[in-house]
Write a structure and sequence with these properties.
With 331 residues, the chain is α/β, with parallel strands linked by helices. The protein has twelve helices and nine strands. Helix 1 packs antiparallel against helix 2 and helix 9 crosses helix 10.
Length: 331
């Protein structure tokens, strides 16, 4: 895929690791939601899972979760949103994380998209599956009886035997077998479902992203994305935001912040924790260090204090590694 209008000519599309928020919105709306190149809904769009797919993309872009981590979420693992906040915390089980179980943080806006998917597209898929008897016909089906505050889940398996295990230890294959029985019948605990109402395998998201990028290319839009690119993008945005938040909270000038970091450390460990990395070096060297001669630190220490949108746009222009949409008007 060519990105000649967005990056230097010697930069391959595979080198691009990040998207600016406006590039992400353009890709999501055109590729997953069926919008046209003009940013308006396309009347010819026949997508049936746009709410699900857009919500999943929002989750990755807002949280930095890996494809497997987000793709195996259970409805009971979504953060409690009864108290109004901008960001909420949840926990990823060790068996589906890369290294160990960890907390993640996600925006209220992304959770709102998930909730809209739950009460519309997902609910319709569950109703169809019940009507067609799909859940009752399953050979392997674990009906959950209860989940404790400590994360212990008990269920009755297909042989009628009662089993208790920790949510933390359930693998992606275990999770697709979990169901709960409500007033209207059985329902999967897996958050993301196919059109038939069955749990979606997390690897299938790569194909969804490929089709979305293909649609953007067919529309003449030079934007594309992979699940990992959205994770990268969250990390870069977090780095910029945390630096600026530190400045505002402490009232520091760029020079004073450099002195403060020399004495007390910096925001890199916080970004490392957000991504679930084992070491800060991994965060620095693999994920967040733009190449081609640009030093991110010099931009962050710029006396002009550009806002995040402007800073990310400058990174896109100078490195060819951040995908932006120059000249595009994106809502």
């Amino acid at each position: 895929m060519q990105v000649a209008e967005l990056a230097p000519s010697d930069v391959r599309s595979s080198d691009v690791k990040w998207l600016t928020p406006r590039a992400f919105r353009l890709w999501r709306d055109a590729g997953l939601r069926g919008y046209g190149a003009d940013g308006r809904p396309d009347a010819s769009w026949r997508g049936r899972n746009d709410g699900r797919d857009a919500a999943f993309a929002d989750v990755l872009f807002a949280s930095g979760l890996r494809r497997r981590e987000a793709g195996t979420l259970l409805t009971v693992e979504l953060p409690d949103t009864t108290q109004a906040r901008r960001y909420y915390s949840g926990r990823i089980g060790a068996a589906v994380a890369k290294h160990s179980g960890r907390y993640f943080y996600i925006s209220a806006a992304a959770l709102q998209a998930v909730e809209l998917y739950r009460v519309t597209t997902r609910a319709a898929a569950v109703r169809r599956a019940r009507t067609q008897g799909r859940y009752d016909a399953l050979e392997v089906r674990w009906v959950v009886r209860g989940i404790t505050r400590r994360g212990e889940v008990s269920w009755v398996d297909e042989r009628g035997e009662r089993v208790t295990a920790s949510l933390n230890g359930l693998t992606d294959r275990d999770r697709v077998n979990l169901f709960i029985r409500g007033e209207d019948g059985l329902e999967p605990l897996a958050l993301w479902l196919t059109e038939t109402g069955m749990p979606m395998r997390y690897r299938g998201w790569s194909k969804v992203f490929e089709r979305a990028s293909d649609r953007c290319r067919e529309l003449g839009l030079e934007v594309f994305a992979t699940p990992h690119m959205l994770r990268h993008s969250m990390a870069l945005r977090s780095l910029v935001s945390l630096h600026h938040a530190l400045d505002r909270r402490l009232g520091l000038t760029p020079a004073e912040r450099r002195h403060y970091e020399a004495l007390y450390g910096n925001v890199w460990p916080m970004v490392k924790d957000l991504l679930g990395h084992r070491s800060e070096e991994t965060t620095r060297s693999i994920y967040l260090e733009p190449v081609r001669g640009l030093q991110l630190e010099s931009l962050l220490n710029d006396e002009e204090h550009p806002d995040n949108t402007e800073l990310l746009a400058r990174l896109a222009e100078r490195t060819g590694l951040v995908l932006d949409t120059p000249g595009q008007v994106v809502a």
